[in-house]
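Input sequence (605 aa), recorded before submission:
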Amino acid sequence: MKIAISFSIIAVTICLLATSCASAEQIQLSIKYKDGHDTTYTERLHMKGGHAQLVIDTLRLKEMKEVKVSPVRGHVKAGKEGYYVTGSSMQVKFLPREYDSHLNAVEFPLPLSMTKTGNQLLMGINKGMKWECRQRVTYTKGNYDFSTIYDLKDIDAYEPLTIDYYLLKGKEANYSAAARKYRHLRIQEGALRPLREKTQERTCLKYIVDAPEIRIRMGWKPVPTPVLEQTLENEPAMITAVTFDRVKDIVDSLYAAGVKRAQLCLVGWNVKGHDGRFPEVFPVEPQLGGEEKLRECITYAQSKGYQIVGHSNRTDIFHIASGDDYSDYSKNAQGKLIKKWKISGGQMYDLCYKIAYEKYFKRDEPKIRQLGFKGVEFIDVLSIVNPHDCYDPTHPVNKREAEQYALRMLQEASQLFGGIQSEGAIDFTSPCLDYALYTSMNMDYPYKMDKTGKKRSQPLADAFLPVWNIVYHGSILSTPGSQAVNYTIKPSHERLKMLEFCSRPIFYFYSAYRNKGANWMGEQDLHCADGKELHQAVQAIKEGYDEYQKYAYLQYETMDHHEEVAPGITVTSFSNGHQIAVNYTSLPYTYQQTIIPPYNWQLVK
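Predicted structure, token format:
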């Protein structure tokens, strides 16, 4: 039974899950209205069975420009026991800090916020209007606050703003238990299926469970680009790094080294290479060998027992693909184009999801399959950004509708190729996604928030936790962060994070391809310009392949608990009782009679 109590002043409905109340939770609401006035309230959510719901209906949302939601228990003075966990799985402890600081998250894999105080943990789950919100943690003059902020100024509300709250107590008041609770809810919603079930139905998915991913960037135009609005006349020349014939050499080297299973992903096989002219992909790039050589390359890799797939993009568009015809682009509320990054193809813009699916995906994806690619196919970007809306009057979509187009593309590609992977892990994709290239763009905490140059603030994120993994491990394969690419040649912290998170390894030829600026996957790289470079690259892959065989079986288990049992010592526990213990320190550590060497790990059965 639901009881709806309407507060006309604040235009908020608090939905109770039963007629009697076991406890109450105070929520602060700060609302800015489109007519210029604003107000702040503290409201009580009456909880039954540890569950309550905050709802603001669509009629009232139309009057609002911004809604800021903050649990009162999240207003904490520095020095108290406890922590926040953001939707990006970043932990913020209530430590005294030297400088004021803040942490923003606009696009985050989990629609969750956690506040642990005392022996209780409050978990919020953003549901209705979740694509319009961001998270913000602030530390100001010794005080912490954690808010969810909804930006509605240009939005025609398409559903009620809804947040579900769960209160966990006692031994369950920790991030592992909260993540397990969210996993249970996702199972109930039908958004999560075990790998054991999925791999019985799809051999291509079963193949990659104990096989690393090897991405090969074949060609690209200079990044950063010297030409923003490219045309056929001013397009920069493409850099050729790996031809289709050279891919065959990589295959031979992997095979000779004893890498028995791997999935290769060709990045930039399309016209003018990686991010060259998206959403246009054909013809197959002639400088790499053209279509005939690509087909030959695919067949050869498959003959050696490897899966091989391609790389495409369904969210972005360049001027060189469209010329002066902007009809396919997403438009904002003011009717303007939405600029993204400046990369290989020039200035990137948002492509309307409806157009992406109905025009480009339906036209081109079957042709890509006909080239011979088969496996867990890669579509870039879709799972690492929030679905974007489009205000073009000829093809308008709100973010919830865009989400459905994204899911159609992922699902249909999975059926076409045998599986689907994408760049990130935003969990609306969980009903379809088989592998997330990385669950975070930045796992390399702590990081600095103040960029004024006048002072260096203390890091606000104290740890990157496997919260997403506790929810989805055993259902979706993943790698923890972009810096974990080529992990066997990375610093110990990045290498060990792979093991702590029980990750599927990913290796990348020419991952660090930018001429200027930081490479988000790290500066350590694999090359194959000559025999020596190829040998070194394959040895790095073989080391990861051999290590992965020791724990790949755990991909079928759920990850049930994670904790730091001592400073620099983490233990990750799985549903079969096995554990991965990791030592980030310079001294050996004994865990349950197992010695973990410095900067190393052990599988504890």
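Checked by second reader. The mean pLDDT is 93.
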